[in-house]
Design brief:
The chain is mainly α and about 170 residues long. Among the domains are: about 70 residues; about 40 residues. It contains six helices and no strands. The two termini are about 60 Å apart. This is Protein sip-5.
């Protein structure tokens, strides 16, 4: 099978995927509309009465109030840790996506600068004389030290998850 045949197959599959996505989106919008239309005031009241009856019959409060205080603290700590880990994962996902976008923008900017330099026939070193004219107009800002490269290096110590004993030891040492 030739390259052009494969490209054509990919285009066909992408078109089919877009059509399925549009169908699913339309079906979801229809379901959401029907769901909202189905919640009439009578159904809401009946659902509340039925839910209240089930909760009263099951009496979950009586079962929960018998727990000791230490158990409540353990439950609260577990829930807090779980939400913190979800937030950390979400932040890491956003950071990874932002880094990918920044890399793509940097590559595009480099390519654009290279094409512009090639099109005008100006090398990178020839563009340097334009800077003194700009400095004569604008005041000179004090030089700041450059950030170290240590923050850009990959920390290989975190490539794999630690064993439970190592994780507990590291957390207790902090």
């Amino acid at each position: 099978m030739g390259f052009h045949d494969l490209v054509q197959r990919v285009r066909e599959r992408e078109l089919a995927l877009e059509q399925r996505h549009a169908q699913a989106s339309a079906s979801w919008q229809g379901l959401r509309g029907r769901w909202r239309e189905g919640w009439t005031p009578t159904r809401i009241v009946l659902g509340g009465l039925l839910g209240g009856f089930v909760i009263g019959w099951a009496r979950p409060v009586r079962r929960v109030t018998g727990l000791p205080a230490s158990r409540w603290v353990q439950i609260a700590t577990s829930l807090w840790s779980m939400t913190a880990s979800f937030r950390a994962k979400e932040a890491a996902t956003h950071a990874e996506a932002a880094a990918g976008e920044a890399g793509a923008v940097a590559e595009t900017a480099a390519e654009t600068a290279e094409v512009a330099a090639t099109a005008t026939g100006v090398a990178d070193t020839a563009a340097a004389p334009a800077a003194p004219a700009a400095e004569a107009v604008a005041p000179v800002a004090p030089a700041r030290p450059l950030p170290s490269d240590a923050r850009r290096r990959v920390d290989t110590g975190w490539d794999t998850e630690p064993r439970p004993a190592e994780a507990a030891t590291e957390l207790s040492e902090r």
